[in-house]
């Protein structure tokens, strides 16, 4: 039996599952700190029952650490929720700054684990497009994954969205080991299919180490 | 004799609290917030057990485990992870990890594994000593 999967759907599922795994890892880290903090409180309670003095400063620090972890887990969950809701509408008005900021947060664990610093310079005023936010996020994720192996020693990638005459573009800079062959290979398979869905194109500037993602103002035309 | 353990995790809050709790259980605890620091620690000191986070920035737990085992094959490493897959678990065991625990882990389980690691280390040391003595006896022909 052969299993035929639509390449856009497959890429989307892979992206969603990678992000979900990374997020569950982050939440478990927060839970581990909260779990140890609760255990520490149990230890202190037992010692207090035996007449040992309670270190109030340590208790304050512990409460602060628990609150910090709850806030962290809450932010992670909110970001996951935003990603999940990006599938609600096939086309909607999308703020590029907000979408890139979400991608920075969602991919942080992966990029940091690979030793790469990914940042963004946001456009002022914000650029909005009518596009499919989920597949645009998926495409940015694929570009980042591709670019992370090609930064060379700088180990940093910067994303810059900007308005253009036909819509907007996002520049990925810092890809110093970019080659024509690598760019060509990258555009095969799911990337090509997602670019078609988003009616977008990719430009590779090997000399400057830049990838430019060109997006139309609407994919409804 | 107290159990000597090294905890490796990039979560500083986690390191602080778990080391306090293990110290309260009469353990001699050292901590490292990165793989690099952890490798430096095992170069300088001997531990009964190393509790190592699987996912860390720059160098992940499996890479760290591999380097540690190359440096000291007898080192008892317990992997701790919020992200365990069967494949990672199998890979960890193949690389010589003693155990793999999922976060958030029960402290009693961690303590029990550290004690087991220490017992395992003692057996390995005894076996090595025995082999060394046998070798000397054979070579010297006494």
Question: Mind explaining what this structure looks like?
Answer:
The complex is a heterodimer of chains A (221) and B (142). Helix content of chain A is 55%, strand content 18%. Chain A contains six helices and seven strands. Chain A has helices at residues 7-49, 56-85, 96-113, 133-148, 180-186, 190-197; strands spanning 92-95, 117-120, 128-131, 156-164, 167-173, 201-205, 210-216. In chain A, the strands form two sheets. Chain A has a five-stranded mixed beta sheet with strand order 2-4-5-7-6, covered by helices on one side. In chain A, strands 1-3 form a two-stranded antiparallel ribbon. In chain A, a hairpin with a 2-residue loop joins strand 4 and strand 5 (167-173). The mean pLDDT of chain A is 94. Chain B has five helices and five strands, in the order βαβαβαβαβα. In chain B, strands 2-1-3-4-5 form a five-stranded parallel beta sheet, sandwiched between helices. Chain A binds chain B through residues 21, 24-29, 31-37, 39-40, 43, 47, 62, 65, 68-69, 109, 112-113, 115, and chain B through 11, 13-14, 16-18, 20-21, 24, 55-58, 60, 81-83, 102-105, 107.
């Amino acid at each position: 039996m052969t299993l035929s999967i639509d390449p856009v759907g497959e890429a989307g599922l892979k992206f969603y599952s990678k992000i979900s795994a990374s997020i569950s890892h982050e939440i478990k880290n927060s839970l581990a700190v909260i779990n140890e903090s609760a255990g520490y409180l149990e230890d202190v309670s037992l010692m207090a029952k035996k007449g040992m003095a309670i270190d109030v400063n340590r208790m304050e620090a512990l409460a602060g650490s628990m609150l910090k972890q709850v806030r962290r887990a809450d932010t992670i969950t909110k970001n996951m929720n935003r990603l999940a809701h990006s599938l609600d509408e096939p086309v909607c008005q999308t703020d590029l700054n907000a979408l890139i900021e979400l991608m920075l947060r969602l991919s942080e664990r992966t990029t940091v684990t690979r030793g790469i610093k990914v940042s963004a310079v946001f456009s002022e005023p914000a650029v909005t497009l009518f596009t499919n936010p989920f597949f645009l996020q998926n495409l940015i994720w694929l570009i980042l994954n591709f670019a992370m192996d090609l930064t060379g020693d700088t180990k940093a990638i910067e994303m810059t969205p900007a308005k253009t005459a036909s819509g907007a573009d996002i520049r990925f800079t810092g890809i110093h080991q970019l080659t024509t062959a690598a760019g060509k290979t990258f555009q095969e398979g799911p990337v090509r299919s997602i670019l078609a869905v988003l009616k977008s194109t990719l430009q590779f500037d090997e000399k400057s180490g830049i990838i430019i993602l060109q997006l139309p103002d609407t994919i409804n035309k | 004799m107290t159990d000597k353990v090294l905890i490796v995790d990039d979560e500083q809050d986690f390191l602080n609290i778990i080391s306090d709790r293990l110290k309260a259980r009469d353990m001699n605890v050292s901590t490292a917030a990165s793989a690099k620091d952890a490798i430096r620690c095992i170069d300088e000191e001997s531990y009964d057990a190393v509790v190592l986070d699987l996912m860390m920035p720059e160098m992940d737990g499996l890479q760290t485990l591999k380097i540690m085992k190359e440096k000291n094959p007898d080192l008892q490493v317990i992997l701790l992870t919020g992200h365990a897959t069967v494949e990672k678990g199998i890979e960890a065991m193949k690389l010589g990890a003693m155990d793999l625990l999922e976060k958030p882990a029960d402290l009693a389980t961690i303590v029990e594994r550290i004690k087991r690691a220490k017992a395992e280390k003692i057996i390995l040391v005894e076996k090595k000593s025995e082999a060394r003595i046998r070798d000397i006896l054979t070579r010297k022909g006494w």
